Amino acid sequence: MTLFLQLGFQGIALGLVYGLIALGFVIMFKGSHTFNFAHGQFVAIGAYVVLVLLPRMPYVLAFIGAVAITVGLALVVERLLIRGLIGRSVTVVVLATLGISTMLHNAVLMVWGVGSHDSVGPVGAGTTKVGSVVLPNSALATVAVSVVVLAAVAWFFQRTRHGLALRATASSQEAALAQGIDVGRMFALSWALAAFLAVTASIFLASFPRVVSPSIGDLALIAIPAIVIGGMDSLMGAVVGGLVVGLTQVLGSNYLSDIGGGRLHEVLPYVLMLLVLLVRPYGLFGSRSIERV
Amino acid sequence: MSAALFEVEDLTLSFAGVRALDGVDFTIDEGELFAVIGPNGAGKSTLFNCISGIYRPESGSIKFGGRQLLGSAPHRIASAGIARTFQNVDVFPAMTVEECLLLARHQHLRSGPVASMVRWGRSAREERAALRKVTEVADRLGLGGLLQSTVGTLPHGIQKRVELARSLCMEPRLLLLDEPVAGMNHEETAEMAATLSEVNSDLGVTMLLVEHDMSMVMGISHRVCVLDFGRRIALDTPANVVRDEAVIDAYLGGAL
């Protein structure tokens, strides 16, 4: 039971990180109808920028610097490369983001090489004992920060005028324009928000395992089954989907380690994703109309 | 010549060689309730889309308060003080009525994305003022009790009313109404006509109404412009328009 609780907490922590990344995908998808395959590279770049800044300044400043740089990059990519494609077929936009992803990935390799570096998590390797359960401090920090960030995002969408304007743009661009909302700025805002979530996720993703390497960008693509499970257009679904994937991976890696050479947990999220696609194509929380896209 | 609030001059636009609008002219005075009618394909919707910045006409001009509107992006036209409703209601179905109306205050608010998350100082004052306006408009349109309802769950007639309320929350100087009673039954139509008339006279909102429903238009409009095949065939008071030979021949047929 103790082991289960420990693993469960780890799974929730990892799941929340996936949830933050998945949420970014969904916000961009809803805001600008773009499925951005380059989002994983924003996660990687965020982690590397923290890595570079960390020796020169306090942690909070390094994080803020990484957010500023990654958000700036996302805004440039959206404005110069994506904006002009909005309204074109989904395939065109997806292929463009795949191209951008490859470019960014190689840029990371050129600048920082293929090697891996130490974790950029905000807390060290210590553990905290709660009853008989031993919890890593990194997982505790992940859960605490993720919950605060997710609550802030929920507040933003439910209670602020920019959040409302983003929801309006996602619902109907024509009606949003008629309210005087600059839809182009809303596309930019959705990308900026997604990039902020990517950097937040990146500092914690680097705690599972505790390294920063170019493969972080690919690791972030595990958010895709999370989104499909939760529903492409549901913010809530992204977080729940992330939790499902995180728990599946952590529990699977332990309890199913005798099967398939211990690699089964890497496949399980995709198996779940395919099952959901077969039974409920719009995901657990998605709106039904999404299946027509 | 006194400066009208809204001036359309020689507006022309063709689609695949067909003239959807052919030299259309009219002016609307401050406070007027002005209607544009015509059969299907007369060019009403095209005219509407030119004014709201969705279509770009080939020639002509559209001036609002003396300023040229052509070439402005739709959201700039809205911010300039022109609100609109849609023929097939375009509300935000997943929002509550209150959220939907608050959104119309967006362009009047100044606080940035981060400041609006922290309700403090100006952003808090702005939000309170916006909420007051929303409540006032909702009460006027009989939506006061529905502020917390989800728009998508309300009946069609009420959604049309929400859409009207949303456009009024923008405090527009000109309100464009695209078939405000489309799909409504007699009772709802009469109610909507009364509301529009009341909003026009009490709040002094200038209105441009595009409509199919003849009796409704004739009952509330100050002046009526009749389009047929993209051309203006009449522009007069409702009483004179129904007697106009050209209108009866070319468009109303023997119906009146």
**Tally of extended strands of chain A?**
4
Q: Secondary-structure element sequence of chain A?
A: HHHHEEEHHHHEHHHH
Quote the distance from N terminus to C terminus of chain B. Answer: 35 Å
Q: What is the gyration radius of chain A calculated from CA atoms?
A: 19 Å
Summarize the structure.
The complex is a heterodimer of chains A (293) and B (256). Helix content of chain A is 70%, strand content 4%.
Write the layout of secondary structure elements.
The complex is a heterodimer of chains A (293) and B (256).
Chain A: H1 2-32, H2 39-53, H3 59-82, H4 90-112, E1 117-118, E2 127-130, E3 133-136, H5 137-159, H6 161-171, H7 173-178, H8 183-205, E4 211-212, H9 216-219, H10 223-230, H11 235-255, H12 264-279
Antiparallel strand pairs in A: 1-4, 2-3
Helix pairs in contact in A: 1-5, 1-8, 1-10, 1-11, 2-3, 2-4, 2-8, 3-8, 5-6, 5-8, 6-8, 10-11, 10-12, 11-12
Chain B: E1 6-15, E2 18-28, E3 33-37, H1 44-51, E4 59-64, E5 67-68, H2 74-79, E6 82-84, H3 97-103, H4 122-140, H5 156-169, E7 174-178, H6 186-203, E8 206-210, H7 214-220, E9 223-228, E10 231-236, H8 238-241, H9 245-252
Parallel strand pairs in B: 3-8, 3-9, 6-7, 7-8
Antiparallel strand pairs in B: 1-2, 1-4, 4-5, 9-10
Would you write up a description of this structure?
The complex is a heterodimer of chains A (293) and B (256). By secondary structure, chain A is mainly α. Chain A is built from 12 helices and 4 strands; from the N terminus they run ααααβββααααβαααα. Chain A has one domain. In chain A, a hairpin with a 2-residue loop joins β2 (127-130) and β3 (133-136). The mean pLDDT of chain A is 89. Chain B folds into 2 domains: 1-81 and 172-256, Rossmann fold (3-Layer(aba) Sandwich); 92-171, no CATH class. Helix content of chain B is 36%, strand content 23%. Chain B has helices at residues 44-51, 74-79, 97-103, 122-140, 156-169, 186-203, 214-220, 238-241, 245-252, and strands at 6-15, 18-28, 33-37, 59-64, 67-68, 82-84, 174-178, 206-210, 223-228, 231-236. In chain B, α6 (186-203) packs parallel to α7. The longest helix of chain B is centred in the middle third of the chain and has 19 residues, at 122-140. The chains are: A mainly alpha (293), B alpha/beta (256).
